[in-house]
Amino acid sequence: MKASSRTVLGLLLLTASVPTWGTEAPSITRSFAAFWSAAEGKPFLQQEEAWGHDIEAPRRDIYDAVVWEKQHDPYWQARRQIWLRARFARYPALAAGIPAEVQALQEAIAKQSIRFKALFPAADSHPPIVILLAPNFDAKSGVLADGKPVLAFAADSLLMEHAQLDIVVPHELFHLYHAQHAGIRNDGVIPDAELTLPLFEEGLATYVSGELSPGHTDGQLLLGDELGALPASRLPDIARRFLADAHGKAIDPAHPELFKRWFNAAPRPYQQGLPNRSGYWLGLQVIRYLRQTHTLAQITAWSPEQAQMQVMAALQKLGA
Length: 320
What we know:
Elements: H1 5-15, H2 28-39, H3 44-56, H4 60-67, H5 76-94, H6 98-119, E1 129-132, E2 139-143, E3 149-154, H7 155-161, H8 165-182, H9 196-212, H10 218-221, H11 225-228, H12 235-245, H13 257-263, H14 278-290, H15 296-300, H16 304-318
Parallel strand pairs: 1-3
Antiparallel strand pairs: 2-3
Helix pairs in contact: 1-2, 2-3, 6-7, 6-8, 8-9, 9-14, 9-16, 12-16
């Protein structure tokens, strides 16, 4: 049964009073309540104006640098409108579930942060995390304009995906920790980095999420049954395929297809005979190979240059 706007608003305001993870002043639940009260059933331009006032304005630095990446994307305004228009169309079905998703995120972050600090004692007891709403990602580590790393969770996107928070949260906590302690930011997608760096970064984050949330299949850890079904016998061939692209840049406006075919999701396959996001699967296999001769502490301490060198050597061995 569809909840009324009055009921949804009441639930949002009630949940907004919980003083825990992701409840910046004002909390995202309170901000969403104000936005949706003004935007529900209105034309898009009015909805966009309410979104800017209630959702983005209190978190301007996060939305500018991390959500829209204004500093890197000259077309961010056009993309923002496309993404917001599509997301606003989903909110009538999502609105009632957002408070519970925010609360579930808060609980998962608190629980996984304790586990994470036991595995990585140097980790922050209260890492810089924000829970917000975003139409273009579910969870993302980024860097603010002042150079400080931050981790953002998009409650609405995670709700739409029915995401397993015990996998997503430790994966993203590692990205944040790695940015703070090894200088590998934006999940390895940084200027001048070769594709070996995001391969390393995503493989390592996936490996760590398996350590912190044991009992999951590879398909669950990789967020894709097709990836989990790839047999070990295909590793040499896939490693050789990646080596052909390995010196491509993670950020390359002239050849964005190189990154996409290994790390992006899309309705159609980027490569014949391989599921999309195969870089995550290959990265996990590379980390498992490196763990045979290195401790987790050693691997997580590598600089970007060391990581790329170690990954290239591992790929050459695995592809031989």
